[in-house]
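Q: I'm teaching a short session on how sequence maps to structure, and I want students to see two examples side by side rather than one. Could you give me a first protein with its sequence written out and its structure tokens following it? Keep the formatting plain so it prints cleanly on a handout.
A: Of course. Example one:
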Amino acid sequence: MCVGFYTLEHPEYALVLCSNRDEYLQRPTDLACFHSFEKLEGHSLSEGNVLSGVDVRAGGTWLGVSRTGKVAFLTNITEEYRTYGSSRGDLVASFLSSTSLEEDVHSLIPSDAKYAGFNLLLLAPSARGEHDLSFDGTYVTNHGGGGTIVVRPLSDAERRCGGMSNGIDGKGAETWPKIQHGLHSFKAIMNAVLPSTPEKELADNLFELLTWKSSQMPRARSELRNTIQVGPIQLQEAQEFYGTRLSTVILVKRNGEVLFIERDIWKFVDSKPVLSDPSSQRQFRFKLQQLD
């Protein structure tokens, strides 16, 4: 039940994105690092071209950025649980690992693949000068499990201030309370950013946005639309605890400098959920490379 907010139109930043990953707390996950989605003998993780966490069970990821600036963010769609032959996280991995920024999105999707419901934000950078980086944005969704995959460009409004969670595109996804509250707070934060605003201040404000909770704790999956951060609950369809495991902030300046921070929220320790210390995080800084 992930959620994310982003802008591609701020004067100082080509991209600002903040997101929560909501997942079963027991699900095995590798923390964010540089890698290649392949564990190659004799190669260190720092040699990889993708920065992301990894879903150990399925092998893909929900959010990542490549050294060349490609960014992908994935959420599921709230629906009845069914199994499908393909993993949604593979779509993110394929996009981030592809060698061309101009590659057709359709070429990354197997023609016979069926996926559980998903929404997918894909961003590819372009630069007209040393300090003039921008991103092209694409929205991909199947509108629910097994559905036909649809690809569309982001609207002007989405480029200025977009939000994405687990609703169905074109069917009220933008009216969810978590999206409405998040967009309002995100706009206020970004409107206050000046050239002199420290990155740390901006990142801290975005992490604070991601902590917002509804006054009433959700008791079912359908109620998760009401809260940005999810405290640990046991959903009716499973015995495992579910909650916000990670929060991530990605800042990309117009000159290609990237700040990526992944912060732990809820963990599963000694058979119980534990709230992480706020200082438990991974931070990466790097400059985007240009493709040959």
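Q: Perfect. Now a second example for contrast.
A: Example two:
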Amino acid sequence: MEVPKQVLSEQQNRSGEQLNIGASWFIHDVLFPVDDLNVTLLSPRVVSLNLGQEVSGLQEPINITFIMDQPINNSIYLESIAKNVSIKPQCVFWDVQSSTSAVWNSSGCETLVEGERVICSCDHLSVFAVLLTPVGVTDPLSAVELFTLTVLSRVGCSISLAFLLLTLITHAVYQKGPSENSLWIHLQVCVSLLLLNLSFLLNDFLSGQPIVALCVAMAALTHYCLLSMLTWLAIEGLHLYLLFIRVFNIHIRRYLLKLALLGWGLPVIPVAIGVGLEKYGVLELPDTEDGGTQLCWVKPSDLVLSILTYVYFLLVMLFNITMFSVVLNKVLKARPKSPLPQDRGLNRGMVLSLLALSWILGLSWAVMALSAVPTIQKITLYIFCTCNGMHGFFLFLRYATLLRKEKENSSSHTTSTNPHTSNKT
């Protein structure tokens, strides 16, 4: 600890008495708790410096040097080394706000890191320490936030599931015989999303069961449903591109069979590998009150499978955003050339159609890509959970529209090919 002579002279002149300097080293840091679960003290390095009176607003700061020598009792520090996560030191002082409340505060202190040395320059005297924060680690949710997001997820999945079931019922009642390619592909998207919502709701219920094998099976099923849903969203985007851009010359031999093998078969490969390598288990979602919830998913220790899933999600979202942009560009260029004045420019109907199209391509899921940014993760989760219930609704509207067009085309074709059809109403 370095105290400038000028500080000592000024304080002695003010008091007019002999100046005593008190320096304390706290062996244990139990008196100075840290609220944040992702942050810890450079334990047990808590020091106090005082002159028997309040000293603040110093023009020339005091300097306290802490040495980071990887203390064995610092679990956060050792865990960060094992995971190759950077550590961000921060100089703080013990800010006593009332007789029953005190927190660590960094005001008035500057942090300088030189190798393993952390130099704290502060403009006051107090109890000082260094906080260690793993860079890029997201702050845990509070119990209220976790409960709210859980309720939003369940409600959103239930609403989406209801509309997807309505889609299947509508298909079973009104669709007779083979469907057009667009209708068939859209139906597969609905089925894959329905299975994902159903597996999520079951996962939420079964994750608390003591049977390990059951949780592993539920984790593998949920992972498969997610990958399958993402694959079918990409197929929907591809088919949209073929319809709008390659209007002609889109005949592909055994087109639907190949899409079915891709949509339902491709996700089997990574899931089978994950099961074989025992990558599935219980994932703990903690909150700030030392509680939390559980989910049957990829084990938190297996980063490779989690990263590959996230990368696949990003690729699908990037592909569909590109397809949506291409279609949007073509629509905007074609509307000014429309022979009908009311169809030129953007109107409310066109905006709603484009919004529905973005939901159909799963672009509402793209907001989850921002969840990797710690500063906006919480708001991202709230937006996604709120929008999740609308996905099934827009898929149902899209299916109803495609089914109506197919019926109209079929009726028109039957009328034009039947010479005995009467024109009377």
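Q: What should students look for in example two?
A: Point them to this: The domain at 19-134 is CATH 2.60.220.50 (Chondroitinase Ac; Chain A, domain 3). Also worth mentioning: The radius of gyration is 31 Å.
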